Amino acid sequence: MEGASNKIVHRDEITDDAFPDSADIPEKYIRTDEVSAGAVVAEDDAYELPIIDMAKLLDPDSSASETARLGSACRDWGFFQLTNHGIDEAVIQRMKESTVQFFDLPLDSKNAVAVRGDGFEGYGHHYSRLSKLDWAESVILITQPVQDRNMELWPTNPPMFRDALEEYSAAVTKLMAKLVGSMAADLGVAPAALQDAFAGKRQSAAIHRYPPCRRPEAVIGNTAHTDGLALTALLHADGTPGLQVRRGGRWFPVPPPLPGGAALVVNVGDILHVLTNGAYRSAEHRVMVNAERARTTAVVFQDASVGGMVAPLPELLAGAEGGEVARYRAVPRSEYLKVRFSALAQRKGFLDGLKL
């Protein structure tokens, strides 16, 4: 998750009067027009988010067919559920429990790791965009590489939180390396072409709690957006729904895994969209809140770049066998956030602004 020290996108500390248990919602949360923007697909409409089986991707007997399904999911939806991902069940369970236990703490305890000044790491509101707040409390932390961590903002309460996040972060790093290798196969390039774009790049984690709200039709848990980095993996810590993916102008609710399930929801971010020259789709999504139940998630965001640039993979472009013309201009990774936040300020589509 990228950070910002500007007035367009920032994070606010959480105070005692946040998330009132009342129908009287402060104006800073009211987003009625945004909630009603776009039709939501009814529950009885037949659709299913693609399900990709990691074990089949790695099995030589089923790899080709499952790789084709992976490519189709990334092109058509930009989202999929990943099963049999290989992360140890105990690691998953500790991450879930640590996330839930942290948000159950008193506010004073959570504010021991509160966001500071113009920083983006620590506990606080989710990103505030253009003077409105999301109905969410969050902890955002840099997790990889290890030397980039700010351990002062890693919670020590609950006691297992740090170890749980450490284990989970390392496991997701390994998983994503395997997954992008399969994506490379689908794209017709050598695994290293895409894996090298991800290797050693920054990873961050965000744990979110979306409290129940008496007026769910008036607030948004997470503003409609595309993810700014390359690849995202979401772990549900409970069974409360809320995530919606935009496809064909409509919002499709994404059901959480069945009780006891450990599937991850994986989605393509803007950088991977550019790296693949638009072959893979960075899909807009949002989180709606529930009137009765909180929703808690743990999300990992992985960065990527090619030679310090956010640009289409050279192996996909003209000059390579079967290559194509670049559809997106190259942007230095160091300037990428400025370009993205500028688009946010002008309410313009970020990826559209990079098109050639």
Automatic annotation (TrEMBL):
Entry similarity comment: Belongs to the iron/ascorbate-dependent oxidoreductase family.
Residue ranges occupied by any Fe2OG dioxygenase domain in the UniProt entry: 201-304
Entry keyword annotation includes Thylakoid: no
Organism, scientific name: Urochloa decumbens
Source organism, top-level taxon: Eukaryota
Keywords from the UniProt entry: Iron, Metal-binding, Oxidoreductase
Source lineage: Eukaryota, Viridiplantae, Streptophyta, Embryophyta, Tracheophyta
Protein name: Fe2OG dioxygenase domain-containing protein
Pfam families assigned to the protein according to its UniProt record, in alphabetical order: 2OG-FeII_Oxy, DIOX_N
